[in-house]
Amino acid sequence: MNLTQFEELYALLTGKNLKELKEILSEMPYPDIAEFIMELDDELDEEKLAVKVFRILPKDISADVFAYLDPDSQMLIVRSITDSEIGRLMDDLFVDDAVDFLEEVPANMVRRVLANTDKETRDIINRFLKYPDNCAGSVMTIEMVDLHDRLTVGEAIKNIRRSGVDKETIYTCYVIDDNRHLVGTIPLRRLLLNDEETLITDIMSDDEQLIYVRTMDDQEEVASIAKKYDLLSVPVVDNEGRLVGIITIDDIIDIIDEEATEDFEKMANLTPSDDEYLKTKIGVLAKNRIPWLIILLISSTFTGQIIEGFETKLAAIAGMTACIPMLMGTGGNSGSQVSTLIIRGLALDEIRVKDYFKVLWKEIRVSFMVGFVLALVNIVRMFVLRYTLGSDASTSVIFVVSFSIWCVVIVAKIMGCSLPIVAKLCRMDPAMMTGPLMSTVVDAVSLLIYFALANALIPNI
Amino acid sequence: MNLTQFEELYALLTGKNLKELKEILSEMPYPDIAEFIMELDDELDEEKLAVKVFRILPKDISADVFAYLDPDSQMLIVRSITDSEIGRLMDDLFVDDAVDFLEEVPANMVRRVLANTDKETRDIINRFLKYPDNCAGSVMTIEMVDLHDRLTVGEAIKNIRRSGVDKETIYTCYVIDDNRHLVGTIPLRRLLLNDEETLITDIMSDDEQLIYVRTMDDQEEVASIAKKYDLLSVPVVDNEGRLVGIITIDDIIDIIDEEATEDFEKMANLTPSDDEYLKTKIGVLAKNRIPWLIILLISSTFTGQIIEGFETKLAAIAGMTACIPMLMGTGGNSGSQVSTLIIRGLALDEIRVKDYFKVLWKEIRVSFMVGFVLALVNIVRMFVLRYTLGSDASTSVIFVVSFSIWCVVIVAKIMGCSLPIVAKLCRMDPAMMTGPLMSTVVDAVSLLIYFALANALIPNI
User: Fold this and answer.
1) Is the ipTM of this complex over 0.85?
2) Do A374 and B29 lie within an 8 Å CB cutoff?
3) A235 pairs with which residues across the strands?
4) Residue B246 to chain A, least CA–CA distance (Å)
């Protein structure tokens, strides 16, 4: 929504021209209406106006708009409407949207909301709320088209026309037997392109082609299956193979974004969080950051000790101390270049654990090249510094530093490709494990290489 | 595909039991068949067997399987089949898949392939190949359902039944006028749930609700629109508003993954690349890494100079040098924690440039808290080191270091939230700009703060 649009709507709202506003809103896409309400609430602190807009929405679209609001605005709305309005709203929402909302609000609001929904909906919601976060059960919905396996194509289409309006998607239909076991899937497209008399069991995908997840499967698994097979929805079955829900492509896209965000956060040494930055309280932001910074601070004790052990010699050889940050930086950057590629490759299933030796062999060769080029650049850089800015690094120091760079790049690249794969092999999270371990180990190893080479190659130590 | 499945298929293939293999393959999902062919080609170097499998595929599915192969295996296949087979394959492929393939192969293969396609397909492909990378035109396809605006629902459904088999998706239909201008969209669902006699113009989404992109729009824009409005396909129009193609949700998911991967790579100081790690030659890997490492190496000259200027004093005060890596590390980590959150928030449209002051105010408060906690932890850490390992840092050094940590965290967090937003404001890439600038500036500022505090607070300098 652009500024002009917002201002037009705002003028109608404050000018009490509500009839025209209602007409315009009922023509607008739901996400845009939701955006308008959230802007009123968040940006202008006009809570009353936000609620007013929600209340003038035509009854048949208010649940759709509600699903697009963020939790803050959803809570605002629910606090301001009557008990019977809550009941109707929860009935109209798809189960996954209702559950998403209830997972974010305080317990007393959950109680009030559930008290005002009918028993059947309440039971379903309660069951869904029990699934652990991030498993298939917690993101699925129940509004799918399930067709009995005795139907013909014509009957199936009639069935969809009759009940389709309340389904989250009708584009993939799920075929079940008398005991609700999932026995096949059939895209609406295939129904439409076949004769009315055909039995759906004759044209459905079954056995080899039947793709589904179980309620307790990780949501990452759901996303990777949907991507691999280009599915518009993924069916979810319970332990007995009975169809209990589906996960639609819009939620799968949210999962993909969430999982990528989590990896970004882990790689930046943050405790991952599902909340949007601007909606997160500063106490929570601090809490997500402090533990990792403390771990890294304490682990830097190693590097400190290594330097202290070499302190008198550093003091004696001019120019050596000044190169420490550069050397450690080069090691850290070289390592994280590789580890990022590997972590991302593992996340996208482009790299597997069994590829380790291929990756290692690649990295050994790449690191020889990269390290060599950097060492050369550094020799030039340090000689230039000596003859222009009068840096006091001797020729032997320059060569020790440059040779150290070469070695450090090789070690860092080997570590950078090994740590994520080893973490994966040990069933740990590659993104989580690699960050802190990498910097600690590469830092310490860089210094040890540097000082060992100095001891060996600089005569006057 | 698991190992047993692979071995079964392999046994049939090498045991010359091709009839049974063909039957099994024709029941398998296309991505799994493609996986089987790629495993034969990549893992076992059984190129001939890979081609053999492709050749025994039923004619009506070979193009579908081809679209799921990676470029290497696609080239292998095309090199091994006859000219007329190539012609038929290109005819059967959706235009976007054909273009994807041709973008990856050498020029002589493009020429051979195009020479064997009919003129119409060739003209379309040539037009598509001209679109710049990463714009909507380069990822769209032309196999959409376009309905004339005079049709009724019944006629529209009949039309879809007749022509739907060749369309990439039939679930969203696009309504055009006599001049092919896009005038509305209508989901198949709405067609099915309305009466046969209804005019489609009466139930289509138009005006306010008409959502589309232009051929030259960035693919990121396409993904963000599809996400916001939960679309299964996004229509693409030319400068005159004529419908020229659609982008389907499976391609949009690829775009989402690609854009996230690019941001990962930029934040790890890599030149972003579209190629899978395992398929990238080591020369290219090295080329993507060296420039940024050189930039960072050269920019570390600043920190080196700052340390050299302070070298005699560092030599005089025990324990100060040992803390340099810890201090710079803490600054770098604190900064990248924030910049990662901001860059990701900007990419997902959760944070906008106008939110800058909100973000800044948040970070100032968070950094005071985080910095304070870290400073305390450091005081404890350094005193423990003194009394256990006999570290020779004096009490004043301990306090200078800890106070520096506090200041450095504050500066780093302010930089970390400001740089990405400023980059965005200047229409530069936040992920690309922040990495190198951050580490250079934060490193230098950390040292300046440290040495300034030491000068001011340690009496014997």
Assistant:
1) yes
2) no
3) A246
4) 16
